[in-house]
Specification:
With 19 residues, this protein is mostly helical. It has 1 helix and no strands. The longest helix has 17 residues, at 2-18. This is Myosin heavy chain.
Length: 19
């Protein structure tokens, strides 16, 4: 589902930024 995929991608980006 689009919103779920967007949320997962956003969470992944946030994890990369926080590292």
């Amino acid at each position: 589902w689009v919103f779920i995929d967007f949320g997962l991608d956003l969470a992944a980006c946030i994890e990369l930024i926080e590292k």
